[in-house]
C-alpha cells in the first residue's frame, strides 16, 4: 500500500466522520429473500442501519437519495465460506488453530472488486478444507485499504475438517483431530495443577490432595491468559465459545462428523460445509439440527457412475436439501469475473432445476447470514438491519441483470457507471482515465476511502450490535 | 397465416390424402411464444409437424378438429440449437488424434464418431439437436468434419453438410497434452513427440502441404498421399470449405496471411481474440465461429482474450460480421445455451443470439435449407423452454429431433401416446 493512498483514505475518512449520515433509495422494486415484492419502495438508511422500508415513508431532508426507478432492490448478498484474499488457504501443519486469517487477508486483491460487482456485501473469510484444525476466520466487507477497515467481525470461527486432508486417510484424520483435543486437555490439566499449587502457596497452605483432585480444583482457576498462546483458540472452541465450520466432503464424513461433534458436545455450535455427496445424508443433517444452514459445495450436481451399467446418475444437490426442508447456503463455483463465479448464477441454476424461488433467493442472502450468525442484521432489507442493499438493473436471477450500485452500511461503495474496468472488460477498449479527484471513479480505491475507519456507527471492529455467539 | 398455408396445402390438386394425413397424423405444437430463429416471433404461436418436417409455423389459428395438439402452455418454442464446431462424441482421448501425419485432409471425422456417446445424449437434453464434429487441433491440417444430429435413429443422423476441412494455426497444433509433447533429449523420438514445435513450424507444415498439392496438380513428383493431395486441391478449388482454428489474435493474422498465399477463403473457428482484430475480420469479411466464452477463470489461459471475449459477440454483430457461437466441447454450465446467455448478458440482442446458435450456425454448415429455423419444409428440430431461452433459470423441457421427442422432462409429448 502506498503512502499517498493511505493519506487519501485518512482524509476521506475524516471528512466523512463528521455528523449523522443518512441515505435513501427511492423507487424501484424491492425483492426480499422470501420472494415478496414491494413496488415503488423507499428504503431509508441512517448511520448505516435501515430505519424505514415502505412505499410511503418520509425521507429525511438531509438524506443522500439514490434514485432507483425501474431498478430492483435486493439485499447485499453474502459469501458464508470463502477463501478470498488468502493466497495460500491452508497451513502445512495439520493442527494450526493458532493461526488467524487476519494475518493473511490481502485488501488489495482484485477479488474484492469482483465481490462488489457481484452484489456481495459481506464475506466470511475462513481457511480452506485441506486441514485438520485450521485457524480463526474473519467476517469482512469486501472493501477497505486495511483488514481493520474491512472487518465486520474478527476472530469469528474455526475450520475443522473431518474429511482427510490430501494424502492422508480417514483414520489418520480422526486420530489427529482427537489427539489435538487430548493434547489441549493435557495442557489445561498441567496448567490447572500448577495454578492449584500456586493458589495454595499464595495462601500458605499445603497441597494435600492427590493430583487428580488438584487438577479438578485448579481447572476452575484457569483463565485464558494462563494457557500457552498456541492453545488459546482451541480452548475457547472446546468450550463452545467459537463456532466451528466443519468440512465433511463425503456422506460418511457427515455422519462421522455429527458423531464426533455430539461426543465433544459442540454440535449446536457447528456449521456443516459439505460436498456434493452429502445429499445422501440429508435426513441425518436435518436430525442433527445445529440451528445453522448447511453450506453446500459450489459444484451443485453430484455425478455417480454405476460401474456395471456405466450409467451416470446425476443429482442436483440443492433440490434434495430443499425437498427435505433443510436450509442451505450456496457458494460460487470458483470465483472471479468468470460467469460461474457469480453467486446469483448458482441461485438461478437452483430455480432452473426446480428449487422454489424463495429458497434459492434465501440461500444467497438470509440463509447465508444465518450461517455466520448474523441472520438478524444481514440478509434482508428491513428496519433495524444493516444498510446493505444492491440496486440491480433487473430481477436478481435474470441473465442480463447487472449490479448498478451497491450500498454497504448505507454508503455507496460501487457504481457500475463508474466501473471503468468492467467497461474495458466488456468492450475490449481502454476507457479514458477518470479526471483527477473524481469521486468513486475507481471501485478499487474509492471504497477504501469511503468505508474508512473512525466513522461513528460503522467502526472497523465488530459493531456493538453484532450478535454475540455466546 | 397458418390457416392460409394449410388451405394452400389442402387446395393442391392431389391433396386429399395430405389433408387427411394433416388431420390424423400431424402434431400441432402450441406455445406462448414461438421464435423462428430468423427474427420472427409469434405470441402465441404454433408449429405443425408432419413426417418429421415442419409444414407450417405461425400465430395460433383455429385448429382443424382431430388435430393432435402438444400444449406448450406458457413456455417458449425455438428451433433446435446447432453447434458448428463441436468436439464431442469422438472418443477424443483415444481415437481422434492422428499420429502418422500432420496433414490428413483425406480423413473423415464421421469414421470416428461414436453415435452411442453419452455426450450426444446430454447435448440433446440441453437443446442442441445438430452438431458439426470438427477436426481435432493436434494436426496442422486435420480431417473433414461431419454434421450429425444428436439423437434419433443412427441411419438418420448423418447430414450432408458442405465438405469442410480444418487447419489449426497456433499452439494447439504443436503443443497439446501428452500425446503431442515436444521432443525431449531424454527420450527416443517417436510418433508421440510431434513436430512442428513452434508457430513457425506449424505455418510451414500448412504452407508445404498446399505447395505439395499444387505440385501434385501440375504432375510434379511428390511423396505425399495422393488422396491427401486431392483433398487439398478440393480446398484450393473451393469445392471443400476451409476452417482455420486460431484462438489468439496473432494466429488469426497468420491464418489470414497463409490463406492469402494460396488464394483460399476460410472461416475462423474459435477465434477468441477476434475482438482484437475486428478490422481484419470486417475488411476481409471472414465468417467467425466464435467461442467458447469461458465460464471459469483459468490461470493457464489467462492471456487468451480473458474476460474481454464476453463482449465480442456483440461487437461482431455490430460490425456486420457473419458469425455463430460454439461451446466447443462443453456441456452444461459452459454449453451452447449458456454461451448464448453470456453473449446476451454482455450486450448481444436476444433474437440475434438465438440466430447465432440456430440459423446462422446452420448456414455456416451449408445446411440452411435443412434446419436451423422454424420454416416450412425444414426438419422438425424443436426445443420447448420453460422460460426465456438461455436464461440461467430456464431449461429445455421438450426436445424434438425430426419430429420425434428425444427429451421430454414433463411428459408433454408422450402422455398423449400413452
Number of helices of chain B: 12
Through-space gap between termini of chain B: 32 Å
Secondary structure: helix percent of chain A: 25-40%
The shape of chain A, in one word, is globular
- Summing up helix and strand content along with how strands pair, one would put the structural category of chain A as alpha/beta
Number of strands of chain A: 22
Kindly name the structural category of chain B.
Answer: alpha/beta
- How many DSSP helices of chain A? 14
Strand content of chain A: 15-25%
What would the average pLDDT of chain A be, to the nearest integer? 87
Describe the fold and architecture.
The complex is a heterodimer of chains A (470) and B (418). Chain A has 14 helices and 22 strands. Chain A has helices at residues 3-17, 110-117, 147-150, 170-202, 211-219, 229-238, 251-263, 282-288, 317-324, 343-352, 357-362, 366-371, 420-427, 446-450; strands at residues 22-26, 29-31, 37-38, 42-46, 49-54, 64-67, 72-75, 77-82, 120-125, 133-136, 138-140, 151-153, 158-161, 244-248, 270-274, 294-295, 301-305, 312-316, 328-329, 389-392, 403-408, 411-415. In chain A, the strands form six sheets. Chain A has a six-stranded mixed β-sheet with strand order 3-2-7-20-21-22. In chain A, strands 5-4-1-6 form a four-stranded mixed β-sheet, with no helix packed on it. A four-stranded mixed β-sheet of chain A has the order 8-9-11-12. In chain A, strand 8, helix 2 (110-117) and strand 9 (120-125) form a beta-alpha-beta unit. Chain A is globular, with a radius of gyration of 24 Å. Chain A starts with a helix and ends in a 20-residue tail after the last helix. Mean pLDDT of chain A is 87; it is low at 1-18 and 438-470. Chain B has 418 residues and is α/β, with parallel strands linked by helices. A six-stranded mixed β-sheet of chain B has the order 3-2-7-18-19-20, with no helix packed on it. Chain B has a six-stranded mixed β-sheet with strand order 10-13-14-15-16-17. Chains A and B meet through helix 10 and helix 13 of A and helix 10 of B.
Amino acid at each position: 500500500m502506498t503512502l499517498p493512498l493511505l493519506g487519501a483514505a485518512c482524509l476521506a475518512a475524516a471528512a466523512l466522520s463528521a455528523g449523522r449520515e443518512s441515505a435513501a433509495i427511492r423507487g424501484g422494486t424491492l425483492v426480499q429473500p422470501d420472494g415478496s415484492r414491494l413496488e415503488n419502495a423507499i428504503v431509508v438508511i441512517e448511520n448505516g442501519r435501515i430505519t424505514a422500508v415502505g412505499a410511503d415513508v418520509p425521507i429525511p431532508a438531509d438524506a443522500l437519495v439514490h434514485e432507483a426507478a425501474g431498478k430492483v432492490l435486493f439485499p447485499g448478498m453474502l459469501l458464508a465460506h470463502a477463501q478470498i484474499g488468502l493466497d495460500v488457504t491452508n497451513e502445512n501443519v495439520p493442527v494450526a488453530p493458532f493461526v488467524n486469517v487476519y494475518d493473511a487477508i490481502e485488501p488489495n486483491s482484485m477479488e474484492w472488486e469482483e465481490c462488489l460487482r457481484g452484489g456481495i456485501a459481506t464475506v466470511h473469510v475462513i481457511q480452506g478444507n485441506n486441514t485438520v484444525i485450521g485457524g480463526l476466520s474473519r467476517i469482512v466487507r469486501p472493501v477497505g485499504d486495511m483488514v481493520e477497515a474491512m472487518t465486520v467481525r474478527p476472530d469469528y470461527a474455526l475450520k475443522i475438517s473431518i474429511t482427510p486432508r490430501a494424502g492422508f486417510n480417514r483414520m489418520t484424520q480422526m486420530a489427529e483431530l482427537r489427539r489435538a483435543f487430548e493434547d489441549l486437555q493435557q495442557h489445561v490439566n498441567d496448567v490447572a495443577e500448577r495454578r492449584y499449587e500456586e493458589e495454595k502457596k499464595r495462601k500458605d497452605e499445603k497441597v494435600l490432595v492427590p493430583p487428580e483432585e488438584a487438577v479438578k480444583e485448579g481447572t476452575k482457576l484457569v483463565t485464558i491468559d494462563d494457557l500457552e498462546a498456541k492453545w488459546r483458540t482451541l480452548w475457547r472452541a472446546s468450550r463452545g465459545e467459537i463456532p466451528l465450520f466443519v468440512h465433511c466432503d463425503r456422506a460418511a464424513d457427515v455422519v462421522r462428523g455429527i458423531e464426533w461433534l455430539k461426543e465433544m458436545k459442540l454440535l449446536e455450535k457447528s456449521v456443516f460445509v459439505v460436498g456434493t455427496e452429502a445429499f445422501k445424508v440429508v435426513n441425518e443433517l436435518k436430525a442433527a439440527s445445529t440451528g445453522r444452514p448447511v453450506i453446500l459445495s459450489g459444484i451443485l450436481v453430484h455425478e455417480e457412475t454405476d460401474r456395471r451399467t456405466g450409467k451416470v446418475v446425476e443429482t442436483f444437490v440443492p433440490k434434495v436439501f430443499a425437498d427435505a426442508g433443510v436450509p442451505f447456503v450456496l457458494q460460487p463455483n470458483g470465483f472471479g469475473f468468470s460467469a460461474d463465479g457469480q453467486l446469483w448464477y448458482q441461485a438461478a441454476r437452483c430455480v432452473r432445476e426446480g428449487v422454489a424461488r424463495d429458497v434459492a433467493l434465501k440461500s444467497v442472502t438470509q440463509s447465508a447470514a444465518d450461517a455466520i450468525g448474523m441472520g438478524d442484521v444481514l440478509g434482508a432489507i428491513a428496519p433495524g438491519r444493516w444498510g446493505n442493499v444492491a440496486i440491480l438493473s433487473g430481477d436478481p436471477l435474470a441473465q442480463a441483470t447487472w449490479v448498478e450500485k451497491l450500498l454497504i452500511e448505507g454508503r455507496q461503495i460501487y457504481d457500475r457507471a463508474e466501473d471503468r474496468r468492467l467497461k474495458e472488460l466488456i468492450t475490449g477498449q481502454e476507457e479514458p482515465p477518470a479526471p483527477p479527484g473524481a469521486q468513486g471513479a475507481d471501485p478499487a480505491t474509492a471504497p477504501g476511502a469511503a468505508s474508512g475507519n473512525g466513522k461513528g456507527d460503522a467502526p472497523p471492529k465488530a459493531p456493538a450490535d453484532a450478535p454475540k455467539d455466546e | 397465416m397458418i390457416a392460409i398455408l394449410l388451405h394452400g396445402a389442402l387446395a393442391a390438386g392431389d391433396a386429399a390424402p395430405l389433408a387427411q394425413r394433416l388431420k390424423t397424423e400431424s402434431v400441432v405444437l402450441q406455445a406462448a411464444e414461438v421464435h423462428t430463429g430468423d427474427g420472427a416471433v409469434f405470441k402465441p404461436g404454433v408449429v405443425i409437424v408432419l413426417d418429421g418436417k415442419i409444414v407450417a409455423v405461425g400465430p395460433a389459428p383455429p385448429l382443424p378438429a382431430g388435430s393432435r395438439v402438444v400444449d406448450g402452455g406458457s413456455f417458449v418454442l425455438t428451433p433446435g440449437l446447432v453447434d458448428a464446431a463441436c468436439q464431442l462424441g469422438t472418443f477424443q482421448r483415444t481415437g481422434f488424434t492422428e499420429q502418422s501425419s500432420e496433414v490428413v485432409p483425406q480423413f473423415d471425422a464421421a469414421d470416428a464418431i461414436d453415435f452411442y456417446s453419452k455426450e450426444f445424449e446430454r447435448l440433446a437434453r440441453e437443446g442442441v439437436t445438430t452438431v458439426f464434429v470438427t477436426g481435432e487441433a493436434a494436426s496442422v491440417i486435420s480431417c473433414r468434419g461431419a454434421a450429425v444430429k444428436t439423437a434419433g435413429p443412427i441411419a438418420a443422423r448423418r447430414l450432408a453438410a458442405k465438405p469442410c476441412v480444418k487447419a489449426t494455426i497456433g499452439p494447439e497444433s504443436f503443443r497439446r497434452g501428452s500425446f503431442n509433447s515436444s521432443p525431449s533429449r531424454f527420450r527416443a523420438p517417436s510418433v508421440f513427440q510431434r513436430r512442428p514445435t513452434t508457430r513457425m513450424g506449424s505455418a510451414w507444415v500448412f504452407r508445404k502441404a498446399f505447395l505439395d498439392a499444387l505440385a501434385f496438380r501440375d504432375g510434379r513428383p511428390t511423396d505425399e498421399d495422393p488422396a491427401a493431395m486431392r483433398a487439398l486441391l478440393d480446398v484450393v478449388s473451393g469445392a471443400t470449405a476451409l476452417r482455420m482454428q486460431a484462438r489468439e489474435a496473432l494466429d488469426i493474422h497468420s491464418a489470414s496471411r497463409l490463406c492469402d498465399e494460396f488464394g483460399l477463403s476460410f472461416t475462423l473457428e474459435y477465434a477468441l481474440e477476434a475482438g482484437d482484430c475486428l478490422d481484419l475480420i470486417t475488411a476481409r469479411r471472414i465468417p467467425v465461429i466464435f467461442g467458447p466464452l469461458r465460464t471459469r477463470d483459468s490461470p493457464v489461459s489467462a492471456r487468451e482474450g480473458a474476460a474481454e471475449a464476453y463482449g465480442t459477440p456483440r461487437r461482431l454483430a455490430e460490425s456486420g460480421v457473419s458469425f455463430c457461437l460454439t461451446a466447443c466441447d462443453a456441456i452444461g454450465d459452459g454449453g451452447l445455451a449458456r454461451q448464448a446467455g453470456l453473449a446476451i448478458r454482455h450486450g448481444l440482442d436476444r433474437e440475434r443470439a438465438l440466430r447465432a446458435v440456430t440459423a446462422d450456425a446452420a448456414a455456416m454448415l451449408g445446411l440452411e435449407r435443412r434446419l436451423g429455423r422454424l420454416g416450412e419444409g425444414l426438419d422438425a428440430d424443436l426445443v420447448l423452454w420453460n422460460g426465456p431461452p438461455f436464461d440461467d433459470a430456464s431449461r429445455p423441457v421438450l426436445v424434438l429431433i425430426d419430429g420425434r421427442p428425444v427429451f421430454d422432462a414433463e411428459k408433454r409429448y408422450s402422455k398423449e401416446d400413452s
